Structure formats: structure tokens, C-alpha cells
Amino acid sequence: MRQHLEHAKFFILEKTKKNASSFGDRLPTSTEGGKYKFADDGFWVGGFWSGLNWLCYEMSEEESFAVAAQASNWRLTKRLYEKPDTLDHDTGFLYLPTFVAHYKLTGDSSSRQIALDAADRLKERFNDKGKFIQAWNVWVKGEAFSEENRGRIIIDCMYNLPLLFWATEETNDEAYRNVAVAHADTCAKTIIRSDYTAFHTYVFDPDSGEPKYGKTFQGYSDDSCWSRGLTWAIGGYAYAYKYTGNTKYLEIARKTAEAYMSRVEQDFIPLWDFSVPNRSEALRDTSAAAISAASLLELAEHADSEDEKQRYTNFAIQTLLNLYETYSTRFEPENEGLLNEGCGHHPAGVDLNCSLIYGDYYFAEAIARLQANGNTKGYW
């Protein structure tokens, strides 16, 4: 088993090095016909390519990965300082695996400052009346769903909170931590359901802060359980516990993990939404599987017993083995992605049956964690 994981590591290193030679300073998003597409400012996923290279640097200590990781930094720096209105709650995904990673791995002070400035932008999205971080900006003025964005949270934001927790650790300014804790508490009362599945989004009155209703954007229905969203909840609350020691967060992480593990397919790779009616015909989402593995390995670090730790670790390992052996591109040398069968935005018909840069990233993160026995420097 460990030998297969070692093979997976070298597969990740080899393909990432090959991609770096052709990607240059561009930011990949998802594949089409086995070739990555790119976004000039990175969209919400721009941090994961740099993060993937930092993971490879950590696993291999090869300087070429550090060089590749920094090649596109200028794009995210320009976005932060010249186009801050394009940022939203996914600021953590953009600046944690890039500038925080660079700082943690090398001590680079300029990256530290850029990451702190990004944390400021995330903190500014806090709605004090509702005690939540606004997820998205208003995309189209006057359009109903877009206007709801003024009072919308989405489950993905739980995975962005470590940027705020890290900022408090760096500065001793509790304002960052207070926002993160308030948001986690609000999510616990609203977007996390009583059965520990999660709504994709939850809407509040932006002026009064009163909670209104759960609603989906990328899931099958408002009341369904979008699988990737549930994996964001597992890791998000595991990290919230790591940074605060609040056992309430650990309990939510455990129970959302149970909700996920009890619903996933027998080969450990989930359907894109657990509530779809035609399960035999539904697409899988390997990105959700990869996020689950990384999240469960983080949760395992906070287990109360060796049995509990092994249960989460073994589930993550089996997930990774199946991703590598059945869903990876290891026999497709011209395919630039690492994992096939990612499901980006099913309702919109966007990025289906492809590689997703965040799926590739979390696959690599989980492999790196296992190689280091949980002792990676970490970016969260």
C-alpha cells in the first residue's frame, strides 16, 4: 500500500514538473481534451497551481518547483492591489497556498505582508449584523440571485478561514480571529443541517442580518447534499478546531465526516451530489474525494484515540489509492491533469469529466501529508 502511495508521489512530481515547463506564469483552472485552460487573474482557483508546486518542492526539495510556484505571483499581487473588487470569500484559496506557503517554507517577508493584506480584504467582507463573511459579490445588478449575494454565505468559506486565523497568529491582532470564529459559529447554526449535511449556500437579510433560507447553486437541489460542499465542511471545521481548541468545531468536523463516509460510493469516490435520483448514471467528483482525503488526514491529527485516528487515516489512504489506481492520468502522458472525472459546476454544465486544478492540489496535499506522517509545514 505504501509503495503505491510512493508511486503516486512520483507521478505527481513528474507530471507537475512537465506542466511547469509549458505553463510558465499562467494559472490553470480545468482541462479540456486533457489540456489545461487558464485564467488571467486566477478566477477563484488561482492559488492552487502555485500551491501544487510548493507541495512538490516540499516533497522533493527540488528548487525548480519553488521557481515554478512563484512564476505567477505577479498576477495575484496585481489582483490584490489593483483589482481588489474582483476578490471574494475565496481570498484564502488564492493567497494561502501561494504567499503564506512561500513565507512558511522560506521565511520570505514580502510574501508575509502580501498575505496579511489579503487577510485584511477577507476580514472586510464581514457583515456585523449577521455575523458572517459575505461570500460572493453582486454579479448582475437587479438579477435576483445576484442581489441575494449581499447576504449570502457558502460552505466553501469554512476552508478559507485559516487565512484569518494565521493572520492573528502572525500579528497578535484578535480582530482576524474574531471574524473567523463568528463566521464559523454562524455557519454551525445555519448552513450545517441537523443531520450534519450542508446546504451549499445560505441567505441572510444583508441589512438586518436575519437568517432566511438555504439555497443551492452547484448542487442538485436546495435540499440536496452537494458532495464537495460536505468535504469543505469537514476540513473547514477541523481547521477551526486546530486554531481555537473549541471542541464544538471538532464535533462538527467529526459528524460531517461521518455524514460523508456513510454516503460515499463503495470505491470511495463520491457522486457529484449525494441526492441525485439516477445514481447509476450520475457523474463522480474526484475533486471532492481528494478534498475529503486531505480533510480526514487533518481531522485524524485531532483524534481522541489511536483507533479514531486510524479510521480517518485508513479511509483517506483508501481514497487516495483508488484515485491513483483508477481515476488518475498515470497512463495518459499527454493529459496535463492528475485526476480524471472532476465535476466542476454540474447544473451549469461547466467543467464536467475533466481535471480540476483544486482536485489535483488536494490529491497532492494528501499524499504529501502521508509522506511526512502529518508533519508537513502546512499552509493552513
From TrEMBL:
Which UniProt key words apply to this protein? Hydrolase
Which InterPro entries does this UniProt record tie to the protein? 6-hairpin_glycosidase_sf, 6hp_glycosidase-like_sf, Glyco_hydro_88, UG_Glycosaminoglycan_Hydrolase
Any Pfam family the entry gives: Glyco_hydro_88
Q: Which domain of life is it from?
A: Bacteria
GO MF entry, a single one: hydrolase activity
By sequence similarity, the record places it as follows: Belongs to the glycosyl hydrolase 88 family.
What is the designated name of this protein?
Glycoside hydrolase family 88 protein
